[in-house]
Amino acid sequence: MTMLITGATILDAVSDKPIEGQAILIEGKRIKAIGRRDELPVPADATVIDATGKYVIPGLMNANVHLLCDIRPETLLRYEGRYEDLIAESAQVALKSGQTTVFDTWGPRRALMATRDAINDGKVIGSRVFCAGNVIGFDGPYSPDFGATHATVLSTRFVNRINATWVENTGRHLMWLTPKQVAEELRTYIEKGIDFIKYAANEHGAQSLGAFISFSERVQRTIVDEAHRAGITAQSHAMSVEGLHMSVMAGCDLITHCNITGPTEIPDETIELMVKQDCGAVIFPWSEKGLQWMRDNMDDGTWTTVKSTDNNARNLIKAGARIMLANDGAILPKDLLAEPAISKGWVGAPEEMNFGLLATGHFVWLEAMEEKCLAPMEMLRAATRNIAVAYKKDADLGTLEAGKFADLVILDKNPLESAKNYRAIGRVVKEGAVVDIDALPLNRILTRELDPAAPEEADYKHFAHKGQRFPMCTACAIVAH
C-alpha cells in the first residue's frame, strides 16, 4: 500500500524550522521519501491524504509507562490469566492519544512480551511496545517495595505467584551478591527477550521515599556493562542526588524521573556530568496549576520535595540536558480514582494537571515543560527523537525521514505555537496505516465505567473513614489506599 500526505507543514524533529511545500510518500510500513509532490514517484493507485493547513509530526513516544499498573488484588485476582488483555487495552489507549511507541519500565515480563509480539505480528492493534520486565533489584507487587499489606490478607501461594510473575530472578536477593554473580543473573534475564534493562539505583518509595541506595557503585557499573554487552540500553530508577550521581557514573543511557531527588536539589556538578555524558534526563514535571494544587493538598515536608523536583527540572533544561517525555503513564480505573486516599495525592490530581495518566498525561507534560521554557522544537524532540536516540531505536523511529517507520500524527493546530495544540489530533498513522482512533480501546476493561451501585448501598452507613497519605508513585498509591 502506498500513501501520500500532502499540503501539511512538516515538523520532522530533525530540522530546526518547519518544512513547507513538501509531501510525505509512504510505501508499506516505511517512509519512502519526503519532497515536493511533483518530484515524488507516486503510483496512480496511491491513497492521498490532503492535510492542507495541518501539521505532521513523528509519532509521539513515551519513555516510561506501566501498561499493567493496577496491582490491587481485586484486579490481579479477577484477571489472572488475562494480563495480556489489560496490557493490550493500555497499548490501545496510548495509540489513540498519538503515542505510537511506548517503553514499559516495570511489569510482568512474560505478559508484556506476549503482547509486544502480538502487536508486532499484527495480531493485536496497539502502540509499539518495548519492555524491561522487572526493575532489577525490586521485589514484587505484594512486597514492602510496593504493597506488603496485601500479603497479610492473601494466601501465601497467591502472593508468591504474583511476586514471582513480576520479579523472577531479578529481585532484592541481588543486593547480597558479588558483581560477578549479579552479572550472571542479569545475563539469564536478558536472554529471556527483554528490550532494555532498568535497575534500582535507589530503593522504591514505599519504604523510605526512595532515599536508600540499592546497589554499590561496582554493581551498578556491572549492570550497565552487561546491558551494553547484550546490545541493549541501561537506565536507572534514581530518587536521591547520590543515587542519580552514581547512575551517571555507571554509564546509564537514561535516568528515570531524575528530577525527583527528595528535598535536596541536584548539584550543578551532577547536572554538568549528565550533559557531558549525554545521559538522557527523564523528567516528571508539574504545571503551575498542578504545583498550586499540590501545595494545597500536602504537608510542608512533602511540598519541600515537590519544590525541589520543579527546580531540578528547570535547571536541567537550562543546562541543555537531553530531555525526554515520560510520566509513569498508566490506566487508573475510575473506582481507584474515587478512593479518598488517592484523591489528595498526585496520582489523583485533576485530569487537566495530572501528568501520570496514560491517555492524557503526556499532553500535561508538554504543557508543563512549555511553562518551564523548554523551546517548542525541543519539546517535540523530547517526545520523539531524544527517546529514540536514548533507547538506540533511532535507526527506525523518532523522526520523519526516508527509510524510517511511517509513524506520525497529523495535528489540526500548530504545536510550536502552543503545547496545548498537541491535543488537536486529527489522525494517527502507525507503520503506514491510518489508525481508527475512535474505536480504541477495542475491549474496555480497566477503562470501563463504574458498575452500578448495589441496592443495599443506599442503606449502608459508614462507621469510620479512611485516612490519607501522599504516595510518591502510581503503584504505591494503588496499593496504599
Automatic annotation (TrEMBL):
GO molecular function annotation: hydrolase activity, acting on carbon-nitrogen (but not peptide) bonds
Pfam families: Amidohydro_1
InterPro entries reported for this sequence: Amidohydro-rel (IPR006680), Metal-dep_hydrolase_composite (IPR011059), Metal_Hydrolase (IPR032466), Metallo-dep_Hydrolase (IPR051781)
Domain Amidohydrolase-related: 55-432
Superkingdom, natural source: Bacteria
PANTHER family named among the record's database cross-references: ALPHA-D-RIBOSE 1-METHYLPHOSPHONATE 5-TRIPHOSPHATE DIPHOSPHATASE
The protein's name in its UniProt record: Imidazolonepropionase-like amidohydrolase
Organism per entry: Sphingosinicella microcystinivorans
